[in-house]
Amino acid sequence: MEVFQVTDKLPDSDNPVVLVIGKFDGVHKGHQHLLEQAKALCAKEEKLAIVCFTPHPLWALRKDPAYQRAITPDSAKFYWLEHYGVDKVYNILFTTKYAENSAETFIREHLRGLNLRHIVVGESFNFGKGRDSDVDLLITLCGERSVPVTEVPFVKDHAHKISSTDIRTAIADGDFATAEFLLGHPYFIEGEVIEKRGTHWLTGMDEYVIPKAGEYDVTINGEQKRIQIINADRIVLPEVKKKAKITFKPTII
After folding, report:
1. pLDDT at residue 181 above 60?
2. What are the phi and psi torsion angles at 224 (to 5°)?
3. Which of 80, 82, 91, 107 has its CA at a distance of 20 to 30 angstroms from the CA of residue 25?
4. pLDDT of residue 88
5. 17 or 250: whose pLDDT is higher?
6. Is 209:244 a contact under the CB 8 Å cutoff?
7. Where's the FAD synthetase domain (predicted)?
8. Which residues have a Cβ under 8 Å from the Cβ of 29 and sit 6 or more positions away?
9. Is the pLDDT of residue 131 over 60?
C-alpha cells in the first residue's frame, strides 16, 4: 500500500482509481462497508484509493478534547486500511487553513491530478467550506469530469448508526466487548517501553484513546499479559522489549 502525506493538492497519478473520502478514525464496520462497496466497483486495472484526514477535523477546528486523541492514529489507521484492501492512501494534514478550501477547490484543483473512475462516500457526506457542500454538490462537481458518485447508507447496530463517537466512549469506559463489536476488529495501541526504578512504562500514547484506570488482560506482542492503566499517560507493563503492541481483550479485572 502506498501512503502519501498531503497538505493541499494530491500528487498526480495516471493509475485509474476508485476513491473513497472519509475520516476513517477507527476503520470500523461502517468504514469497512464503504471499502467493500468501493472495491466491488473497481475494474481489473483500477486501484482502491482513500482520502482521509489527520488530525480529526473537530480537534483541528474546535479543539474539542473528545477528538484530541484518535481510535486509530496514522500508523494504526494505515495498518487497518491495508488489511482491508486499500492500495493508495492520501492522508491530508487538516488545519484551520485547509478548512478554508471550498468544495469546488477540493474537487477541481486538489483532485485534478488523479485518474478518477468513481468516488464513494458515506451517507450525509459533507466536505469543503460552506453548508451546501454535501453529496448533491459532490455529484454536480464530479459530473464536470464525468466521474460517477455513489453514496453508501450508514451501517447500523440495531437502530443506531455505527459511529466513531460510540467507539471512543466504549474504549474510554474499558468496554472492549462493545468496542470490538463496533470496530469489527480488536483495539490495539503501540508505543515504546522505558524502565524507571524497576517499573516498565509504555510511552508515546499521546495520540491514542486510552481506557479508564484499571487492570486489563491483554496480549503484548502476541503474548498473554496483564497491564495497569493509571491514567492516559501512565501505563504500567510487565517486563517486555523496547516496543510493545498491546491488544485489548473484552474483559476487565
Report:
1. yes
2. -70, 125
3. 107
4. 98
5. 17
6. no
7. 13-165
8. 155, 162, 182, 183, 184
9. no
